[in-house]
Amino acid sequence: MSVILGIESSCDETGIAVVKNGREVLANELASQIDVHKIFGGVVPEIASRQHTKIISQLVAQVMDSIEEPIDAIAATQGPGLMGSLMVGLSFAKALAYSWKLPFVPVHHIEGHLFSAFLGEKAPEFPFLSLVVSGGHTQIIQCHAPHHYEILGTTRDDAVGESFDKVARLLNLSYPGGPSIQKAAATGDPTAFDFPRAMRNKGNLEFSYSGLKTAVLYALQEGEAKVEDVAASFQAAAIDILLIKIKQAIQQTGATQLVIAGGVAANQLLRDRTTTELDIEVFLPPFKYCIDNGAMIAAAGHSRFEHGLFGDFGTTPNPGLPLQAS
Ligand code: KG4
Ligand code: ZN
Asked: Are residues 79 and 38 in the same domain?
């Protein structure tokens, strides 16, 4: 039984949460910076770190005031992410750990997303296959055991979430692109444009999303196109290729459980298609734990804590931290 305080600050959300036993969320606060970055059409790193600095102590106080149980350790995202943003959360976590005389646990952001699957009603059991789809990552990962991962496939260029954000900008839809494209797509025709499904016949588990974005650009340059139809056709292609590759990965690995995590796991078309089309038990994190949050970091931190995988006060943020077995 352990209770972990989790701090996430790798990009534009300050997430603070307390999770018991890696599964039960006792408190969860999220301060989104979307409104601040929206006017720039994407995240401005310098503004992001300042926003984290402004809000972090208030959020931690709020979370701590709302729980009764004592904390056993403090976990924070070490990377990957924006250097300045990571620095704020990690330094805050180390300072708290020092003053409260508690262990400090650094967490890989993607490991956090993987562990968000444990915050749902039913939890997966290792080993399982996973698809991590976010603004920075598109990866198929074989999760052999806690903290022992094998990346089976990744994107060669843009991440799928990044392509939603870029295409939204082309369509003059608001940031972040995922939710606004999903909304526009709801009244569009997904067959209006036949956008490419890159790498579909390559026989590997690699992705490429930059061509899809370019295809959208060309379609818009060719003439009048209804925003809703372009959004729906883009979304159909972007999600289709995820399904194609994950089906292939299931066949290759013989996996019986699949975790889908990361911001794009909030996409309704992906959620519907993966739950109806795949011959495998699918674990989707609750909607609010798909995008960056503190609870997923606390959940992963719980497992690291139980395995004795601590950091120390010399642990520094790493914007390019690899997801390695440790
Ligand atoms: O995991 P996340 O919050 O941050 C990163 O680690 O990158 O993911 C953010 C990404 C953004 O690119 C956003 O557009 C995308 O997730 N996203 C979605 C949806 N909600 C968020 N993409 C598609 N459909 C959605 N409903
Ligand atoms: Zn993320």
From this structure: yes
The finding on whether 180 has its CB within 6 A of some atom of ligand 1 is no
Q: Is residue 279 domain-shared with residue 294, that is, in the same domain?
A: no
Q: Which domain holds residue 219?
A: 126-284
Closest to 79 measured CA to CA, from 116, 109, 111:
109
Using the atom order of ligand 1, give the atom closest to the CA of residue 10.
Answer: 6
Q: Is the pTM of this model over 0.70?
A: yes
Q: How far is the CA of 49 from the centre of ligand 1 (A)?
A: 19
User: How many other CB atoms are found less than 10 A from the CB of residue 62?
Assistant: 14
Which residues pair with residue 282 across a beta bridge?
258
The enclosing domain of 178 has a CATH number of 3.30.420.40
CB of 161 shorter than 6 A to ligand 1: yes
Q: Residues 89, 77: contact at Cβ < 8 Å?
A: yes
Mutate to test the pocket of ligand 1, among 115, 139, 264 (most ligand atoms within 8 A of CB): 264
- Which atom of ligand 1 is the closest one to the Cα of 292? 3
Instruction: Going residue by residue through the chain, which has 326 residues, state the pLDDT in tens, using 9 for 90 and above.
Output: 899 999 999 999 999 999 999 999 999 999 999 999 989 988 999 999 999 999 999 999 999 999 999 999 999 999 999 999 999 999 999 999 999 999 999 999 999 999 999 999 999 999 999 999 999 999 999 999 999 999 999 999 999 999 999 999 999 999 999 999 999 999 999 999 999 999 998 999 999 999 999 999 999 999 889 999 999 999 999 999 999 999 999 999 999 999 999 999 999 999 999 999 999 999 999 999 999 999 999 999 999 999 999 999 999 999 999 997 55
Q: Which atom belonging to ligand 1 lies closest to the Cα atom of 290?
A: 1
Q: Ligand 1, atom 18: nearest CA belongs to which residue?
A: 178
User: Cα(137)–Cα(112) distance, rounded to whole angstroms?
Assistant: 13
**Minimal-distance CA residue to ligand 1 atom 16:** 263
Residue among 286, 314, 301 nearest 8 (CA) = 301
Beta carbon of 182 within 6 Å of any ligand 1 atom: yes
Atom 2 in ligand 1: residue holding the nearest Cα: 263
CB-count burial class (<10 Å; 0-12, 13-18, 19+) for 223: exposed
